Amino acid sequence: MTTLHAKQALLPDGWANDVRLTLKDRRISAIEQGVEAKVGDERHDVLLPTMANLHSHAFQRGMAGLAELRGPDSDSFWSWRTVMYRFALTMNPEQMQAIAAQLYVEMLEAGFGRVGEFHYLHHDRDGSAFTNRAEMAERIVAACDETGIGLTLLPVFYAHSGFGGQVPNEGQRRFINDLDGFAALLDGAKKATSRLPCSVTGIAPHSLRAVTPEQLSALQQLSFDGPIHIHVAEQVKEVEDCVAWSGKRPVAWLLDNAALTDRWCLIHATHMTEDETVRMAKAGAIAGLCPITEANLGDGTFNAEVFLKAGGRFGVGSDSNILIGIADELRQLEYSQRLSHRARNVLALPGGSTGRYLFDGAVIGGAAALMAESGLAVGKPADVVSLKPRHDLGLSGDQVMDGFIFANGALVDCVWVGGVKQVEAGRHKAREKVAARFVGVMRELMAAF
Protein backbone atom coordinates (compact mmCIF):
# COMPACT_ATOMS: atom_id res chain seq x y z
CA MET A 1 0.00 0.00 0.00
CA THR A 2 1.21 3.51 -0.88
CA THR A 3 -0.17 6.82 0.35
CA LEU A 4 0.43 10.04 -1.52
CA HIS A 5 -0.22 13.56 -0.25
CA ALA A 6 -0.52 16.48 -2.65
CA LYS A 7 -0.92 20.19 -2.14
CA GLN A 8 -3.22 20.06 -5.17
CA ALA A 9 -4.83 17.20 -7.07
CA LEU A 10 -7.06 17.16 -10.14
CA LEU A 11 -10.08 15.01 -9.28
CA PRO A 12 -13.00 14.27 -11.62
CA ASP A 13 -15.01 17.20 -10.25
CA GLY A 14 -12.10 19.64 -10.27
CA TRP A 15 -9.10 20.72 -8.25
CA ALA A 16 -8.84 19.87 -4.56
CA ASN A 17 -6.32 20.97 -1.94
CA ASP A 18 -4.40 18.89 0.61
CA VAL A 19 -5.37 15.53 -0.84
CA ARG A 20 -4.33 12.06 0.36
CA LEU A 21 -4.58 9.16 -2.10
CA THR A 22 -4.21 5.58 -0.95
CA LEU A 23 -3.06 3.11 -3.61
CA LYS A 24 -3.73 -0.56 -2.95
CA ASP A 25 -4.03 -3.66 -5.15
CA ARG A 26 -3.52 -1.63 -8.35
CA ARG A 27 -6.42 0.68 -7.51
CA ILE A 28 -7.12 3.91 -5.68
CA SER A 29 -8.67 2.67 -2.45
CA ALA A 30 -9.26 5.97 -0.65
CA ILE A 31 -9.20 9.74 -1.24
CA GLU A 32 -9.25 12.33 1.50
CA GLN A 33 -9.48 16.08 0.89
CA GLY A 34 -8.46 18.98 3.11
CA VAL A 35 -6.18 16.89 5.33
CA GLU A 36 -2.59 17.24 6.39
CA ALA A 37 0.11 14.78 5.38
CA LYS A 38 0.82 11.95 7.78
CA VAL A 39 4.07 10.23 8.66
CA GLY A 40 5.04 7.93 5.83
CA ASP A 41 3.10 9.80 3.13
CA GLU A 42 4.91 10.60 -0.09
CA ARG A 43 4.59 14.36 -0.50
CA HIS A 44 4.03 16.01 -3.87
CA ASP A 45 3.02 19.39 -5.21
CA VAL A 46 0.49 18.37 -7.87
CA LEU A 47 -1.16 15.05 -8.72
CA LEU A 48 -2.94 14.32 -12.01
CA PRO A 49 -4.31 11.21 -13.70
CA THR A 50 -2.00 9.70 -16.30
CA MET A 51 -3.06 10.08 -19.91
CA ALA A 52 -3.53 7.41 -22.58
CA ASN A 53 -1.37 7.68 -25.69
CA LEU A 54 -3.97 6.39 -28.10
CA HIS A 55 -1.93 5.92 -31.28
CA SER A 56 1.62 4.63 -31.61
CA HIS A 57 3.77 2.79 -34.15
CA ALA A 58 6.59 1.73 -31.83
CA PHE A 59 9.10 0.70 -34.48
CA GLN A 60 9.04 4.22 -35.96
CA ARG A 61 10.70 5.59 -32.82
CA GLY A 62 13.92 4.18 -34.26
CA MET A 63 13.73 6.44 -37.33
CA ALA A 64 12.95 9.65 -35.43
CA GLY A 65 14.91 12.44 -37.08
CA LEU A 66 16.02 10.31 -40.05
CA ALA A 67 13.49 11.72 -42.54
CA GLU A 68 14.27 15.43 -42.17
CA LEU A 69 16.51 15.68 -45.25
CA ARG A 70 14.78 17.35 -48.18
CA GLY A 71 14.74 15.45 -51.45
CA PRO A 72 15.23 16.88 -54.95
CA ASP A 73 11.55 17.88 -55.13
CA SER A 74 9.03 18.94 -52.49
CA ASP A 75 8.58 16.38 -49.74
CA SER A 76 5.29 15.01 -48.44
CA PHE A 77 3.74 12.25 -46.38
CA TRP A 78 4.26 9.92 -49.33
CA SER A 79 8.01 10.55 -49.57
CA TRP A 80 8.28 10.12 -45.78
CA ARG A 81 6.44 6.81 -46.11
CA THR A 82 9.10 5.53 -48.50
CA VAL A 83 11.79 6.14 -45.86
CA MET A 84 9.59 4.48 -43.24
CA TYR A 85 9.17 1.37 -45.39
CA ARG A 86 12.95 1.11 -45.82
CA PHE A 87 13.43 1.28 -42.07
CA ALA A 88 10.61 -1.19 -41.33
CA LEU A 89 12.23 -3.80 -43.55
CA THR A 90 15.49 -3.85 -41.57
CA MET A 91 14.70 -4.89 -38.00
CA ASN A 92 14.36 -8.28 -36.36
CA PRO A 93 12.08 -9.07 -33.39
CA GLU A 94 14.74 -8.45 -30.72
CA GLN A 95 15.56 -5.07 -32.25
CA MET A 96 11.93 -4.04 -32.40
CA GLN A 97 11.44 -4.98 -28.75
CA ALA A 98 14.43 -2.86 -27.76
CA ILE A 99 13.08 0.15 -29.67
CA ALA A 100 9.60 -0.32 -28.21
CA ALA A 101 10.97 -0.52 -24.66
CA GLN A 102 12.90 2.72 -25.16
CA LEU A 103 9.76 4.38 -26.49
CA TYR A 104 7.63 3.20 -23.58
CA VAL A 105 10.18 4.46 -21.06
CA GLU A 106 9.94 7.87 -22.75
CA MET A 107 6.14 7.74 -22.70
CA LEU A 108 6.06 6.95 -19.00
CA GLU A 109 8.56 9.72 -18.26
CA ALA A 110 6.21 12.07 -20.12
CA GLY A 111 3.19 11.06 -17.99
CA PHE A 112 1.47 8.63 -20.34
CA GLY A 113 0.19 5.57 -18.47
CA ARG A 114 -1.16 3.47 -21.34
CA VAL A 115 -0.36 3.07 -25.02
CA GLY A 116 -2.58 2.13 -27.93
CA GLU A 117 -0.12 0.22 -30.10
CA PHE A 118 -1.34 0.26 -33.71
CA HIS A 119 0.82 -2.70 -34.58
CA TYR A 120 1.41 -3.66 -38.21
CA LEU A 121 5.01 -4.87 -38.39
CA HIS A 122 3.99 -8.54 -38.35
CA HIS A 123 6.27 -10.68 -40.53
CA ASP A 124 9.91 -11.52 -41.08
CA ARG A 125 12.11 -9.31 -43.23
CA ASP A 126 11.39 -11.28 -46.40
CA GLY A 127 7.64 -11.01 -45.82
CA SER A 128 7.15 -14.61 -44.70
CA ALA A 129 5.12 -15.27 -41.59
CA PHE A 130 6.98 -16.26 -38.44
CA THR A 131 6.26 -19.78 -37.20
CA ASN A 132 4.57 -17.99 -34.33
CA ARG A 133 2.36 -15.51 -36.18
CA ALA A 134 2.15 -13.33 -33.07
CA GLU A 135 5.96 -13.15 -32.64
CA MET A 136 6.14 -9.40 -33.17
CA ALA A 137 3.00 -8.75 -31.11
CA GLU A 138 4.57 -10.71 -28.28
CA ARG A 139 7.59 -8.39 -28.49
CA ILE A 140 5.31 -5.40 -27.95
CA VAL A 141 3.78 -7.13 -24.94
CA ALA A 142 7.26 -7.92 -23.59
CA ALA A 143 8.33 -4.28 -23.91
CA CYS A 144 5.21 -3.17 -22.02
CA ASP A 145 5.84 -5.79 -19.33
CA GLU A 146 9.44 -4.66 -18.95
CA THR A 147 8.59 -0.97 -18.65
CA GLY A 148 5.27 -1.14 -16.82
CA ILE A 149 3.10 0.83 -19.23
CA GLY A 150 -0.51 -0.21 -19.75
CA LEU A 151 -1.38 -1.67 -23.16
CA THR A 152 -4.25 -1.69 -25.59
CA LEU A 153 -2.88 -3.79 -28.43
CA LEU A 154 -4.37 -3.12 -31.86
CA PRO A 155 -3.14 -5.70 -34.40
CA VAL A 156 -3.47 -4.18 -37.85
CA PHE A 157 -5.14 -5.83 -40.82
CA TYR A 158 -3.36 -4.64 -43.96
CA ALA A 159 -4.03 -6.35 -47.31
CA HIS A 160 -3.82 -3.84 -50.17
CA SER A 161 -1.84 -0.87 -51.42
CA GLY A 162 -4.78 1.25 -52.53
CA PHE A 163 -8.55 1.58 -52.80
CA GLY A 164 -10.41 -1.19 -54.56
CA GLY A 165 -8.14 -4.02 -53.45
CA GLN A 166 -4.95 -3.04 -55.27
CA VAL A 167 -2.05 -5.47 -55.02
CA PRO A 168 0.33 -4.57 -52.15
CA ASN A 169 3.76 -3.27 -53.03
CA GLU A 170 7.10 -4.78 -52.05
CA GLY A 171 7.72 -2.25 -49.28
CA GLN A 172 4.57 -3.44 -47.51
CA ARG A 173 5.51 -7.12 -47.40
CA ARG A 174 5.98 -7.26 -43.61
CA PHE A 175 2.47 -5.88 -43.01
CA ILE A 176 0.28 -8.03 -45.26
CA ASN A 177 -2.24 -10.67 -44.10
CA ASP A 178 -5.28 -12.42 -45.47
CA LEU A 179 -8.29 -12.87 -43.20
CA ASP A 180 -7.34 -16.36 -42.02
CA GLY A 181 -3.78 -15.32 -41.24
CA PHE A 182 -5.00 -12.27 -39.38
CA ALA A 183 -7.45 -14.32 -37.32
CA ALA A 184 -4.57 -16.54 -36.20
CA LEU A 185 -2.48 -13.46 -35.43
CA LEU A 186 -5.33 -11.95 -33.39
CA ASP A 187 -5.70 -15.16 -31.36
CA GLY A 188 -1.98 -15.09 -30.58
CA ALA A 189 -2.12 -11.42 -29.66
CA LYS A 190 -4.99 -12.05 -27.24
CA LYS A 191 -3.05 -14.84 -25.55
CA ALA A 192 -0.01 -12.59 -25.22
CA THR A 193 -1.90 -9.66 -23.72
CA SER A 194 -3.70 -11.92 -21.27
CA ARG A 195 -0.41 -12.05 -19.34
CA LEU A 196 -0.49 -8.28 -18.71
CA PRO A 197 -2.79 -6.85 -16.05
CA CYS A 198 -5.57 -4.59 -17.34
CA SER A 199 -4.57 -5.10 -20.97
CA VAL A 200 -7.03 -4.83 -23.85
CA THR A 201 -6.92 -6.25 -27.38
CA GLY A 202 -8.81 -4.64 -30.23
CA ILE A 203 -8.32 -4.53 -33.98
CA ALA A 204 -7.15 -1.96 -36.49
CA PRO A 205 -8.16 -2.15 -40.13
CA HIS A 206 -5.25 -0.04 -41.37
CA SER A 207 -7.24 2.27 -43.65
CA LEU A 208 -9.81 2.19 -46.40
CA ARG A 209 -6.83 2.06 -48.77
CA ALA A 210 -5.66 -1.22 -47.25
CA VAL A 211 -8.93 -3.15 -46.75
CA THR A 212 -11.89 -3.88 -49.00
CA PRO A 213 -15.47 -3.32 -47.79
CA GLU A 214 -15.95 -7.08 -47.56
CA GLN A 215 -12.82 -7.45 -45.44
CA LEU A 216 -13.86 -4.59 -43.18
CA SER A 217 -17.16 -6.32 -42.54
CA ALA A 218 -15.50 -9.68 -41.91
CA LEU A 219 -13.01 -8.19 -39.45
CA GLN A 220 -15.83 -6.96 -37.24
CA GLN A 221 -17.11 -10.53 -36.90
CA LEU A 222 -13.87 -11.76 -35.31
CA SER A 223 -13.69 -12.48 -31.59
CA PHE A 224 -12.25 -9.52 -29.67
CA ASP A 225 -13.42 -7.30 -26.84
CA GLY A 226 -11.50 -4.11 -27.53
CA PRO A 227 -11.94 -1.07 -29.75
CA ILE A 228 -11.67 -0.62 -33.52
CA HIS A 229 -9.16 1.96 -34.76
CA ILE A 230 -8.62 3.02 -38.38
CA HIS A 231 -6.51 5.64 -40.19
CA VAL A 232 -8.78 7.90 -42.22
CA ALA A 233 -8.65 11.14 -44.25
CA GLU A 234 -5.09 11.98 -43.25
CA GLN A 235 -4.05 13.20 -46.70
CA VAL A 236 -5.79 15.14 -49.47
CA LYS A 237 -4.66 12.52 -52.01
CA GLU A 238 -6.30 9.83 -49.90
CA VAL A 239 -9.59 11.76 -49.99
CA GLU A 240 -9.33 12.25 -53.75
CA ASP A 241 -8.55 8.57 -54.34
CA CYS A 242 -11.47 7.51 -52.14
CA VAL A 243 -13.87 9.73 -54.09
CA ALA A 244 -12.56 8.29 -57.36
CA TRP A 245 -13.10 4.76 -56.03
CA SER A 246 -16.44 5.11 -54.23
CA GLY A 247 -17.91 8.51 -55.02
CA LYS A 248 -17.63 9.41 -51.34
CA ARG A 249 -15.07 10.95 -49.03
CA PRO A 250 -13.45 8.50 -46.54
CA VAL A 251 -15.24 9.57 -43.35
CA ALA A 252 -18.56 9.85 -45.19
CA TRP A 253 -18.03 6.33 -46.57
CA LEU A 254 -17.41 4.96 -43.07
CA LEU A 255 -20.44 6.76 -41.67
CA ASP A 256 -22.65 5.36 -44.42
CA ASN A 257 -21.24 1.82 -44.51
CA ALA A 258 -19.59 0.88 -41.21
CA ALA A 259 -22.18 1.78 -38.56
CA LEU A 260 -19.75 3.83 -36.48
CA THR A 261 -20.24 3.83 -32.71
CA ASP A 262 -18.22 4.86 -29.67
CA ARG A 263 -16.23 1.65 -30.11
CA TRP A 264 -14.50 3.28 -33.08
CA CYS A 265 -11.55 5.65 -33.05
CA LEU A 266 -10.84 7.47 -36.30
CA ILE A 267 -7.15 8.30 -36.43
CA HIS A 268 -6.38 11.74 -37.89
CA ALA A 269 -9.71 12.46 -39.68
CA THR A 270 -7.92 15.59 -40.83
CA HIS A 271 -9.74 16.35 -44.06
CA MET A 272 -13.48 16.38 -43.42
CA THR A 273 -16.34 18.56 -44.54
CA GLU A 274 -18.39 20.23 -41.83
CA ASP A 275 -21.16 17.67 -42.41
CA GLU A 276 -18.73 14.77 -41.96
CA THR A 277 -17.32 16.42 -38.83
CA VAL A 278 -20.71 16.82 -37.18
CA ARG A 279 -21.90 13.35 -38.18
CA MET A 280 -18.72 11.76 -36.80
CA ALA A 281 -19.22 13.55 -33.48
CA LYS A 282 -22.88 12.52 -33.31
CA ALA A 283 -21.99 8.89 -34.05
CA GLY A 284 -19.78 8.84 -30.95
CA ALA A 285 -16.58 7.88 -32.78
CA ILE A 286 -13.52 9.30 -31.04
CA ALA A 287 -11.04 11.47 -32.92
CA GLY A 288 -7.53 10.09 -32.51
CA LEU A 289 -5.40 13.20 -33.01
CA CYS A 290 -1.63 13.13 -33.39
CA PRO A 291 -0.78 16.84 -33.55
CA ILE A 292 3.03 16.58 -33.61
CA THR A 293 3.12 13.86 -36.26
CA GLU A 294 0.43 15.59 -38.31
CA ALA A 295 2.52 18.76 -38.25
CA ASN A 296 5.74 16.88 -38.98
CA LEU A 297 4.17 15.18 -42.01
CA GLY A 298 2.39 18.29 -43.25
CA ASP A 299 -1.00 16.55 -43.04
CA GLY A 300 -3.26 19.51 -42.30
CA THR A 301 -5.43 20.75 -39.43
CA PHE A 302 -8.29 18.88 -37.78
CA ASN A 303 -11.64 20.68 -37.67
CA ALA A 304 -11.57 20.65 -33.88
CA GLU A 305 -13.83 23.58 -33.07
CA VAL A 306 -16.79 22.23 -35.06
CA PHE A 307 -16.19 18.68 -33.82
CA LEU A 308 -16.12 19.64 -30.15
CA LYS A 309 -19.12 21.94 -30.41
CA ALA A 310 -21.03 18.98 -31.84
CA GLY A 311 -20.18 16.93 -28.73
CA GLY A 312 -17.23 15.01 -30.15
CA ARG A 313 -14.54 13.41 -28.00
CA PHE A 314 -10.84 13.29 -28.74
CA GLY A 315 -7.59 11.86 -27.46
CA VAL A 316 -3.97 12.30 -28.50
CA GLY A 317 -1.26 9.94 -29.67
CA SER A 318 2.38 10.25 -30.62
CA ASP A 319 1.96 8.18 -33.82
CA SER A 320 5.38 8.29 -35.56
CA ASN A 321 6.98 8.95 -32.16
CA ILE A 322 9.33 11.64 -33.39
CA LEU A 323 8.74 13.52 -30.11
CA ILE A 324 7.07 12.29 -26.92
CA GLY A 325 5.25 14.71 -24.63
CA ILE A 326 1.78 15.38 -23.27
CA ALA A 327 2.29 19.15 -23.20
CA ASP A 328 3.84 19.05 -26.67
CA GLU A 329 0.84 17.28 -28.21
CA LEU A 330 -1.78 19.44 -26.50
CA ARG A 331 0.06 22.68 -27.21
CA GLN A 332 0.47 21.77 -30.89
CA LEU A 333 -3.24 20.92 -31.10
CA GLU A 334 -4.24 24.33 -29.76
CA TYR A 335 -1.65 26.23 -31.79
CA SER A 336 -2.79 24.53 -35.01
CA GLN A 337 -6.28 25.89 -34.30
CA ARG A 338 -4.94 29.36 -33.54
CA LEU A 339 -3.10 29.47 -36.85
CA SER A 340 -6.14 28.17 -38.72
CA HIS A 341 -8.62 30.56 -37.10
CA ARG A 342 -6.20 33.43 -36.44
CA ALA A 343 -7.49 33.55 -32.88
CA ARG A 344 -6.35 32.65 -29.37
CA ASN A 345 -7.65 30.12 -26.82
CA VAL A 346 -9.75 28.40 -29.47
CA LEU A 347 -10.23 25.09 -27.65
CA ALA A 348 -11.56 26.37 -24.35
CA LEU A 349 -14.89 27.17 -22.79
CA PRO A 350 -15.77 30.85 -22.33
CA GLY A 351 -13.90 32.09 -19.28
CA GLY A 352 -12.12 28.76 -18.90
CA SER A 353 -8.56 27.50 -19.01
CA THR A 354 -7.37 26.24 -22.38
CA GLY A 355 -4.84 23.86 -20.85
CA ARG A 356 -7.42 22.35 -18.54
CA TYR A 357 -9.95 21.84 -21.34
CA LEU A 358 -7.35 20.12 -23.48
CA PHE A 359 -6.03 17.94 -20.66
CA ASP A 360 -9.44 16.83 -19.41
CA GLY A 361 -10.65 16.09 -22.93
CA ALA A 362 -7.57 14.05 -23.82
CA VAL A 363 -7.68 12.04 -20.57
CA ILE A 364 -11.36 11.15 -20.94
CA GLY A 365 -11.37 10.61 -24.70
CA GLY A 366 -8.05 8.79 -24.77
CA ALA A 367 -9.15 6.30 -22.13
CA ALA A 368 -12.45 5.70 -23.91
CA ALA A 369 -10.64 5.12 -27.21
CA LEU A 370 -8.50 2.41 -25.58
CA MET A 371 -11.38 0.97 -23.53
CA ALA A 372 -9.61 1.80 -20.29
CA GLU A 373 -10.54 3.59 -17.09
CA SER A 374 -9.19 6.99 -16.10
CA GLY A 375 -9.35 9.63 -13.40
CA LEU A 376 -8.34 10.02 -9.77
CA ALA A 377 -11.33 8.44 -8.05
CA VAL A 378 -11.88 5.62 -5.60
CA GLY A 379 -11.95 2.30 -7.41
CA LYS A 380 -10.15 3.59 -10.48
CA PRO A 381 -6.73 2.28 -11.52
CA ALA A 382 -3.87 3.74 -9.51
CA ASP A 383 -2.43 5.49 -12.57
CA VAL A 384 -1.08 8.76 -11.26
CA VAL A 385 1.44 11.40 -12.32
CA SER A 386 2.99 14.08 -10.13
CA LEU A 387 4.13 17.45 -11.45
CA LYS A 388 6.89 19.53 -9.96
CA PRO A 389 6.63 23.26 -10.75
CA ARG A 390 9.92 24.73 -11.92
CA HIS A 391 9.51 27.63 -9.50
CA ASP A 392 7.40 28.16 -6.39
CA LEU A 393 5.21 30.97 -7.75
CA GLY A 394 2.18 30.23 -5.63
CA LEU A 395 0.13 29.20 -8.65
CA SER A 396 -2.90 27.03 -8.20
CA GLY A 397 -5.08 24.69 -10.23
CA ASP A 398 -5.59 25.73 -13.81
CA GLN A 399 -2.69 28.18 -13.63
CA VAL A 400 -0.37 25.26 -12.99
CA MET A 401 -1.95 23.31 -15.87
CA ASP A 402 -1.65 26.18 -18.32
CA GLY A 403 1.96 26.71 -17.28
CA PHE A 404 2.72 23.01 -17.76
CA ILE A 405 1.23 22.88 -21.25
CA PHE A 406 2.11 26.27 -22.69
CA ALA A 407 5.14 27.55 -20.78
CA ASN A 408 7.11 24.48 -19.67
CA GLY A 409 6.35 25.68 -16.17
CA ALA A 410 6.24 22.24 -14.54
CA LEU A 411 7.97 18.91 -15.07
CA VAL A 412 6.74 15.35 -14.74
CA ASP A 413 8.24 14.12 -11.49
CA CYS A 414 6.82 10.67 -10.61
CA VAL A 415 4.51 8.23 -12.40
CA TRP A 416 2.62 5.26 -10.99
CA VAL A 417 0.84 2.67 -13.14
CA GLY A 418 -1.30 0.17 -11.31
CA GLY A 419 0.10 1.59 -8.08
CA VAL A 420 3.70 0.76 -9.03
CA LYS A 421 6.09 3.69 -9.24
CA GLN A 422 7.79 3.47 -12.62
CA VAL A 423 9.22 7.01 -12.75
CA GLU A 424 10.88 8.96 -9.94
CA ALA A 425 12.48 12.40 -10.24
CA GLY A 426 11.67 12.29 -13.94
CA ARG A 427 13.60 9.09 -14.61
CA HIS A 428 12.22 5.63 -15.31
CA LYS A 429 13.65 3.00 -13.01
CA ALA A 430 14.92 0.97 -15.98
CA ARG A 431 16.09 3.94 -18.04
CA GLU A 432 19.80 3.12 -18.16
CA LYS A 433 19.39 -0.57 -18.98
CA VAL A 434 16.78 0.06 -21.65
CA ALA A 435 18.71 2.95 -23.19
CA ALA A 436 21.95 0.94 -23.39
CA ARG A 437 20.19 -1.82 -25.33
CA PHE A 438 18.46 0.74 -27.57
CA VAL A 439 21.77 2.41 -28.44
CA GLY A 440 23.33 -0.92 -29.40
CA VAL A 441 20.36 -1.84 -31.58
CA MET A 442 20.28 1.55 -33.29
CA ARG A 443 23.96 1.30 -34.16
CA GLU A 444 23.27 -2.07 -35.79
CA LEU A 445 20.30 -0.73 -37.72
CA MET A 446 22.03 2.46 -38.85
CA ALA A 447 24.93 0.45 -40.21
CA ALA A 448 22.50 -1.35 -42.53
CA PHE A 449 20.11 1.56 -43.30
Structure description:
- With about 450 residues, the protein is an alpha/beta fold.
- It has three domains: about 1-50 and about 395-430, Urease, subunit C, domain 1 (Roll), CATH 2.30.40.10; about 50-225, Metal-dependent hydrolases (TIM Barrel, Alpha-Beta Barrel), CATH 3.20.20.140; about 230-345, Metal-dependent hydrolases (TIM Barrel), CATH 3.20.20.140.
- The chain is about 35% helix and about 20% strand.
- The chain is built from 14 helices and 17 strands.
- Strands 3-2-1-4-14-15-16-17 form an eight-stranded mixed beta sheet.
- The longest helix has 18 residues, at about 95-110.
- It is globular and about 65 Å long.
Blueprint of the fold:
Layout: E1 2-11, E2 14-24, E3 27-32, E4 42-49, E5 51-56, H1 77-88, H2 93-110, E6 112-119, H3 135-147, E7 150-157, H4 179-193, E8 200-201, E9 204-205, H5 213-219, E10 228-232, H6 236-246, H7 250-257, E11 264-268, H8 274-283, E12 286-289, H9 291-296, H10 304-309, E13 314-316, H11 326-341, H12 354-369, E14 384-389, H13 398-406, E15 410-417, E16 420-424, E17 427-428, H14 431-448
Parallel strand pairs: 1-4, 5-6, 6-7, 7-8, 7-9, 10-11, 11-12, 12-13
Antiparallel strand pairs: 1-2, 2-3, 4-14, 14-15, 15-16, 16-17
Helix pairs in contact: 2-3, 2-14, 3-4, 12-13
